[in-house]
């Protein structure tokens, strides 16, 4: 429910308006007092009291003497005019009204002039005090750098305090022989300054070579929570081009990151506030009217559920805030196929928009950006990561971008493509400084984790206005609560854009309309849903067929050429070209070798159909058997039956299952099942990701992924 507008009872007027109000009060007293027989001496008394109060206030504020005299004279003039009008009963005559108007104009002009003069004088005093303070700090820093690092020839060009009064920046011109401070400079300077906990030192490059900026935080401004701004002024419609607000830097400047041209990488250990930052980014993207937000979270859709509640449960939003949620491995494959196909369709369908001055689309409400937020990246299978790499590598021109979230930035969690293409990087609180070195390509050696000690604190780097990636800097993320999310979701629902027809004109898009019919029963089980979900679920639910070997949904999307496991066309793996038996779309490398091996043994039937192939043909790809068409009719299946049953059970459960639950489904003992499956996987060199733990919702324990079991099945069949 929208909040009622907040009334502002603050008294915010200019000096000229104040003078006009005093003059208006004097005229009202003169007009009404003449009718009621008010004594003229009372007006004189009020004028005198006003002059005395004005003099006391001016003396307290140390205003110049002639300013005090002028303001007191104005009060006395107003009191004298009112007394004269009361005595003669002439307040409503033209002559008296004319004198009043002239006096009012003079008072307003005088008040404005005095205020300007006082403001100028105040600014001069502040500038003088600031210059004295800056000169003193510059001398101290010149001596400090010389004493700690034995510098010679350096110049402290300026010291600028921050508006937040939480610190200052020192500009230093370094000597040519020593253009940089040593690696331990941050700790030495912080120790020498005896900075409090929460304070810190940050050293960045200046605008020219040989200049460095030393940012000194003297107060702990990141110890308290920063509630995300959610006033009516802070929820107006924005554009994705204005960036996503994440929090504040120590100097109170807002951190905004752009995800129009670049992908983003959010990293943080458990309990660091990473999920909070993801939801803050969600809030920034959903505030716009030109961004479609989608999620992949195969551990229970934890980042999507708070934003879906307003639509799915409360019914305060007519549309889902999150357009698509890949809550299982299978659904995530469908989503990725949909996006990959949409990228290609946008490139071909918007050629006119891509052939102008810029070779990238300009997004708007009718042609929105697609922002895919992927949480718990370590829980995804290699095949799904490969599809995400394709989206990251190919979606920039048509404005399909990705925010990747994980616990670590190491190679075993984040792929090389994701790391290289993510110029926006956010690292939350860490306990090991080496984690920052994995995340930030430059400047990490000079970072001190103690500069971001609390929950919600971290470091970020992003391209600036000149498209230059800045060095990592500390910041404190906004805090967003589920209650605030519900309020924002209700406010942002009516501005959600829709994907254009070109994006939906693909083969995988036929599963897009019925997505919520597949997803909502898994997310909310038997919980009653709001009536607002009926238009999205009261239709035929389409489910793509699963590949018998890999268990991956076959959406009809064209595979990437040369990609792992790519076939000539999903759904028609046996399609052949007319000549030489080479599979359509695959005529190089291993396929050329397979064609040479097959061509002498494959007789051409009357119509050249595959049914005419020799029953003893072996199809090979560089020594790897991929299919064997014939042989003895009683040839046994090389795949252990337990592996096939386990794969089918895990696939039916949504792509992941704990060992105990799998044993229950198969009617076996959990310990015996785990030992037997481990031997089966080890026999073909398949290892479970991580240490074999699978997270389902908030529970993480030993289990299996359908992709792992499918990989083992493929290896057994290829080994025969």
From TrEMBL:
<feature type="region of interest" description="Disordered">
    <location>
        <begin position="546"/>
        <end position="584"/>
    </location>
</feature>
<dbReference type="InterPro" id="IPR027417">
    <property type="entry name" value="P-loop_NTPase"/>
</dbReference>
<feature type="compositionally biased region" description="Low complexity">
    <location>
        <begin position="570"/>
        <end position="584"/>
    </location>
</feature>
<protein>
    <recommendedName>
        <fullName>FtsK domain-containing protein</fullName>
    </recommendedName>
</protein>
């Amino acid at each position: 429910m929208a909040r009622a507008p907040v009334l502002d009872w603050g008294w915010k007027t200019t000096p000229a308006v104040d003078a006009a109000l005093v003059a208006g009060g004097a005229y009202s007293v003169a007009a009404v007092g003449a009718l009621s027989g008010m004594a003229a001496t009372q007006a004189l008394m009020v004028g005198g009291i006003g002059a005395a109060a004005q003099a006391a206030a001016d003396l307290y504020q140390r205003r110049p003497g002639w300013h005090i005299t002028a303001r007191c004279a104005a009060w006395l003039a107003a009191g004298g005019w009112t007394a004269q009008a009361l005595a003669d009963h002439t307040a409503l005559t033209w002559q008296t009204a004319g004198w009043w108007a002239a006096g009012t104009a003079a008072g307003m002009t005088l008040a404005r002039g005095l205020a300007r003069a006082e403001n100028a004088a105040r600014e001069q005093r502040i500038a003088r005090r600031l210059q004295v303070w800056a000169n003193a700090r510059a001398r101290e820093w010149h001596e400090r750098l010389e004493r700690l690092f034995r510098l010679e020839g350096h110049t402290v060009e300026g010291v600028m305090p921050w508006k937040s009064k939480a610190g200052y920046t020192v500009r230093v011109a370094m000597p040519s022989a020593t253009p940089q401070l040593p690696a331990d400079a941050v700790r030495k300077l912080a120790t020498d300054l005896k900075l409090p906990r929460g304070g810190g030192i940050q050293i960045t490059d200046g605008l020219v070579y040989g200049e460095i900026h030393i940012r000194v935080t003297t107060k702990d401004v990141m110890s308290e929570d920063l509630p995300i701004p959610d006033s009516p002024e802070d929820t107006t419609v924005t554009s994705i081009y204005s960036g996503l607000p994440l929090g504040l830097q120590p100097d109170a400047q807002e951190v905004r990151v752009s995800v129009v041209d670049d992908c983003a990488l959010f990293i943080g250990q458990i309990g660091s506030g990473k999920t909070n930052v993801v939801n803050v980014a969600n809030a920034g993207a959903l505030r716009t009217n030109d961004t479609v937000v989608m999620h992949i979270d195969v551990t229970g859709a934890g980042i999507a559920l708070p934003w879906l509640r307003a639509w799915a449960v409360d019914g305060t939003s007519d549309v889902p805030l999150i357009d698509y949620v890949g809550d299982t491995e299978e659904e995530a494959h469908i989503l990725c196929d949909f996006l990959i196909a949409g990228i290609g369709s946008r490139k071909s369908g918007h050629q006119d928009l891509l052939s102008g001055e810029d070779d990238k689309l300009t997004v708007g409400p009718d042609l929105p950006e697609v922002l895919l937020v992927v949480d718990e990246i370590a829980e995804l299978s290699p095949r799904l990561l490969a599809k995400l790499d394709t989206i990251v590598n190919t979606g920039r021109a048509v404005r399909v971008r990705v925010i990747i979230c994980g616990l670590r930035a190491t190679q075993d969690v984040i792929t090389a493509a994701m790391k290289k293409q993510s110029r926006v990087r956010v690292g939350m609180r860490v306990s090991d400084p080496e984690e920052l070195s994995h995340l930030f390509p430059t400047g990490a050696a000079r970072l001190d984790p103690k500069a971001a000690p609390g929950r919600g604190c971290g470091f970020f780097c992003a391209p600036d206005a000149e498209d230059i990636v800045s060095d990592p800097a500390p910041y404190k993320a906004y805090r967003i609560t589920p209650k605030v999310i519900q309020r924002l979701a209700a406010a942002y629902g009516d501005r959600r854009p829709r994907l254009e027809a070109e994006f939906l004109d693909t083969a995988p898009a036929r599963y897009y309309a019925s997505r919520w019919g597949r997803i909502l029963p898994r997310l909310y089980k038997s919980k009653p849903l709001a009536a607002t979900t009926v238009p999205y679920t009261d239709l035929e639910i389409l489910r793509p067929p699963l590949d018998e070997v890999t268990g991956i949904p076959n959406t009809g999307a064209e595979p990437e050429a040369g990609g792992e496991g790519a076939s000539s066309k999903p759904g028609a793996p046996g399609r052949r070209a007319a000549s030489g038996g080479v599979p359509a779309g695959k005529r190089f490398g291993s396929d050329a070798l397979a064609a040479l091996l097959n061509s002498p043994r494959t007789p051409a039937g009357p119509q050249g159909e595959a049914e005419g192939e020799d029953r003893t043909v072996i199809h090979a790809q560089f020594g790897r058997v991929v299919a064997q068409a014939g042989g003895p009719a009683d040839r046994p299946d090389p795949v252990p039956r337990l592996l096939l049953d386990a794969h089918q059970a895990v696939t039916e459960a949504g792509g992941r299952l704990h060992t105990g639950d799998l044993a229950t489904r198969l009617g076996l003992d959990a310990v015996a099942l785990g030992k037997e499956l481990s031997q089966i996987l080890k026999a073909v060199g398949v290892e479970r990701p991580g240490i074999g733990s699978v997270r389902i919702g908030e529970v993480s324990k030993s289990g299996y992924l359908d992709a792992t079991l499918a990989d083992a099945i493929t290896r057994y069949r290829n080994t025969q």
